[in-house]
UniProtKB/TrEMBL annotation:
InterPro entries linked: CB, DNA_brk_join_enz, Integrase_recombinase_N
Annotated protein name in UniProt: Core-binding (CB) domain-containing protein
Classification of source organism: Bacteria, Bacillati, Bacillota, Bacilli, Lactobacillales
Alphabetical list of SUPFAM superfamilies matching this protein: DNA breaking-rejoining enzymes (SSF56349)
Domain Core-binding (CB): 1-90
Keywords for this protein: DNA-binding
PROSITE patterns according to UniProt: CB (PS51900)
Length: 134
């Protein structure tokens, strides 16, 4: 295994995403999300190399994002970008499969969105009111 700096790996990921033909917007978004995670990890845990990042570092960051008032769906977007980062690192063999912390980071539960369904009678009432108003 080759030891690689966390920010060097982020630059490599950007090159990989460009070579795969991802849109500039997707690349910029992923770089932003992962960059914020790495800055948090570096400043709070003094992590320099990708093989030093552990499960608790990732969970700590995701909880931090959630506690800033963000919704679960937004936190899951961070999770997805961070997961792509670690999948890249694993694919390049900078870490071994079993050391990928994202394997044990579950998605945050998102609230269910209930959709109100109109009955046939409701639709008839609405139509009759519209016709009466013409």
């Amino acid at each position: 295994m080759y030891k690689i700096d966390i920010f060097t790996a982020l630059k490599e990921l950007e090159l990989s995403e460009k070579s795969r033909g991802l849109t500039q917007g997707t690349i910029k978004r992923n770089q932003g999300f992962v960059g914020r995670f790495l800055k948090h990890t570096y400043s709070n845990f003094n992590i320099n190399y990708v093989d030093e990042i552990q499960l608790n570092h990732v969970k700590s960051f995701l909880v931090y994002v959630f506690e800033q008032g963000n919704k679960a769906a937004y936190v899951n977007t961070y999770r997805k970008a961070i997961s792509a980062y670690f999948n890249y690192i694993e694919g390049e063999e900078y870490i071994q499969y079993y050391k990928n912390p994202m394997l044990r980071v579950p998605k945050m539960k998102e609230p269910e969105v209930l959709v109100f369904a109109w009955s046939d009678d409701d639709i008839k009432k609405i139509k009759s009111k519209q016709l009466a108003g013409i």
